[in-house]
Fold each of these.
Amino acid sequence: MYQVEYSALKYYNNVISEECLYIGMLFHNRTTGKRDFRYISNFKRFQSFDDEADADFVKLYLAGIKQQVEENIFNYNNPFSISEFTRIYVNEFRFSDVTSIEVSEDENYVDNLTKMYLKFDFNKSKRLSQSEERKYIRKILSSTNATFSVPKITGIYNENVNFDYIIGDVAIKLFSFKEKNAAKLIPTAKQWAFSAEELKNRYKIVFLYDDDGDTPPLKIVLEILKKHAAVYQLQDGLDYVLRQIS
């Protein structure tokens, strides 16, 4: 087994904004010493996020990080700390907290985690399947010492409420909008909002979703959920949950 640390690079269109775009992934295999940095290729999407940014500069900036991090003739013998490296990024470019996970030796963790965090940089046919994504979600959440419990709990009417994960006092429900009509999920959102309100004194409810669209039905679904629980896009949500259970 390999012990791997990783951190996601996020771009903020200004230093006080909470809105960000995931643009890179940094990996350090502590077992082998190997380091990898992957970054986006779809700069049209980046330009849509910040139409005032200099995309050519950002490309060079990301290429510079890759050259600085990955082993080459100039740095192959230098010690590397992912925590120390990521700490200096504090303005528009910021790395997420470092996450440590265990992976098997034949596992393509660099490709898989890159596809998970930078998923909208990939064509739909090349993204992780839902089962593969859930496997990595559990692996990431298992990186702490928090205890998983059965995700089925009883509501105030003795009905079953089925979350995807319950870790400590955090209950997580995943909302997938892949190839779905968000308008048809509005009744489901209302149902889960009602359950979240009922259970808020027993659990910290977190709803995670897998879409970065901006359609009116999706906005309605998210507005319903946000009134009763913490709601995050998957990538940011994993960071949030890790902070809650660490």
Amino acid sequence: MRTTLPRLSVLLIAGLLFTGCAGFADFIRNMEEVDPSGVFSSTGEVMTYNVLFPEIAFQPWTGGCSIDPGVDLQSNWGVPRDAVKHGKDAHDWQSLAELDGFSANWVTSEPMLETPGDLGQAYSRFTSELTGDGVFDLFVLADDCAWIYIDGEHIDSQGTEKSFTRSTIVGLDGTHTLDIVVYDGGGIGGLMFSLDTREAPTDKDRGASARPQ
């Protein structure tokens, strides 16, 4: 899905020449944060907020994976801050997703991977700015359920069943705001996401504003 391999190769060679072997690992780590391919993902800048808790813990936990979340973008999330990055192998699902070409940092609202709250149930919110012109595939993998918004409009959801290949088709024409609200039913929370250029968008795709695939 990424079409900038020649540019990436030049950057790798330049990094090796100018940093030497000793500093090459640091160069790679810094370059990943910039993401020279131009793909927006949770490896880049992601903001988060205070976690919010259900009034009563869900029994079973899947009750929190409703069509509409128990919170929305107007809820009292507090002041935005940087999301906590845990790397690309923090969650067991990441290695499986990477086999399908979906790789990014796992991010959470709290410093630890495990979600606080009664039975470990809580809502978290993540925000990132997206810039592009065209049609893109937005891949989201959240633990456990997620609601996806572009410029405040709910465009898709992730239910209890996980997929490493399903995407949401997103049409962009400038800078837009991505918001993802995640409900965790216990244990590890958080998510990762990646916005990639579609390989061969159709005329119908080019007219899309934002819709699920």
